[in-house]
Amino acid sequence: MKHFEVNFDGLVGPTHNYAGLSFGNVASLSNARSVSSPRSAAKQGLEKMKALHDMGLVQGVLAPQERPDIYALRRIGFHGSDAEVLAKAAKQAPAIFQACCSASSMWTANAATVSPSADTADGRVHFTPANLTNKFHRSLEPTTTGRILKAMFNNNRYFTHHHHLPDNEHFGDEGAANHTRFCKEYGYAGVEMFVYGRYAFDGSKPAPTQYPARQTYEASEAVARLHGLSDESTVFIQQNPAVIDQGVFHNDVIAVGNKNVLFYHQEAFLHTEQKLAELQEKFDAPMYFIEVPTAQVPVAEAVKTYLFNTQLISLPNGEMTIIAPTECRDSDIVSRYLEELVSKNTPIQSVQYFDVKQSMRNGGGPACLRLRVALNDQELDAVNPACIMNDALFARLNQWVDKHYREELSSDDLADPQLLIESRSALDELTQIMKLGSVYPFQQD
Fold first, then answer.
1. Where do the domains of the chain lie?
2. Distance (Å, rounded) from C-alpha 201 to C-alpha 238?
3. What is the mean pLDDT of each run of 10 residues along the chain (445 residues)?
4. Residue partners of 403: CB distance under 8 A and separation at least 6
5. How would CATH label the architecture of 3-67+102-440?
6. Catalytic site residues?
7. How many CB atoms sit inside 10 A of residue 398's CB?
8. Peptide bond just before 64 cis, omega within 30 deg
9. For residues 28 and 360, what is the distance between their CA atoms, to the nearest angstrom?
10. How many Å apart are CA 109 and CA 308, to the nearest integer?
11. HSE-CB for 267 with a 13 A CA cutoff
C-alpha cells in the first residue's frame, strides 16, 4: 500500500481584498486599505499548486467561500434586495460589511484539523472544521467549509466528518495552523502535536497581554478526543505568550514540521525542553529538532519574512525541501540562515522560493495556503478526483480566473452589486468544474 501527504491549497476567492481585519496579524494590519489583485492572487496560488504537482507530489484544491456574505448581513438586520443590503451595510456598518466580504478562506491551514487513519481509533481519516471564533470574518466560514470537505471526502468508509466545536472562544479552534503531525512515513502511526495559546477555563495560567491567543487548550483537547487519538500519540504544547504579543498569531508563524523534523524558533514555546523530550519519547525514533536562535533570526524578522510559515515537504526522491516565500530570499538575515541550514547534516536539503505576495500582504504565507491530508492509495482513490491538481485542471482553473476575477479591487469596490453577481457566477461554475454539488447558500435558495 502506498501513502501520500496531499496538500490541499485554498483557491483565492473573487473578493480578495486588504481590509486589515485581523488584529494580531502584523502583515494584515500594515497593508490595510491597499488595492488588491484578486486575479493575480488566484494565479499565484495556482502556480504554487502546479509547481508542487510537477515535483511529483499529489496536490489538491479547496474551493473558496461565497463572499460578500449576504446571509450574514441579513441575520444582523439588513433587509431589502441584495443590492440594497450591500448599500445599507456599507454605509451604516462599514467595518462589519468589510468583514462579510473577506476572502480569508484562502488560508486553508485554518480550514480544519485532520488526523489520518493510521492515528485514529476507528482507522478512518477524521476532519473537524475550525470554528475560528476569534475573528468575526472567519467565524462565518466553518459551516460552508464542512460542506466543501464532505463534497471532497465523500466516502463514509474512509472519512469521518465532525461538526465544528462550540461557537465560543472557550473552544477557539484555528485548525491545522496549530497542529503538526510527526511520523516515520506518512502511512505509519504518528504523534500529533497540538499547540495552544491559552487555557480558557483557568485564568491563572500564562497568556498574552497585547494580542489574543486564538487557540485554546480545551479546543485542542476536544479535537483529539473527537478524532479518537490516544494519549501516547498526542502532545500538547503552549505557545510562548511573548511571541504571540510580537505578532505570532498561529503556531505555523513560528514553527513547522514534517515527518521526523521540527523546525522552530527559540522563542516559540513554553517549557520547550520538557515538551520536546515528551515528543521524542512518544515518537519512539530519532527526531531532528532544528532550533533557530534569536541571535541569528529575531522574531520580528521571522514574522516579516514568514520563515516558519513555509511548507516543509518530502519529495518523491526522499529529499526534504522548504517551500518559502520570496520575502525570505530578499531578507539578508533569513536568506543567510537558510543557506547555512541546507549545508548542515539535517534532512532539510534545499529551499525553493515562490512569489505569493498577494497572500503575504494579507498575512498568509505558503503554509497558510494549504491543508495537509495524509492518505493511503485506497483513501486517495476515494477522494473526489475533480479536486486533485493535474495539467487539465490547472489550465481550466486559470481560464476560469481570467473569465471571472477582477484585476484590481479596493475596499470601496466591495459594495458594488455587480461584484456579488460576478462572485456567484464564478462559484457556480467552479462547483461544476470541481463536481462539488450545491455547497453554497445561494445555490440552495
1. 3-67+102-440
2. 15
3. 96 86 51 78 95 98 97 98 97 95 94 98 98 96 98 98 97 98 97 98 94 97 98 98 95 98 98 98 96 98 96 96 97 98 96 91 88 98 98 98 96 94 98 98 91
4. 426
5. 5-stranded Propeller (3.75)
6. 174, 250, 368
7. 16
8. no
9. 8
10. 13
11. 19
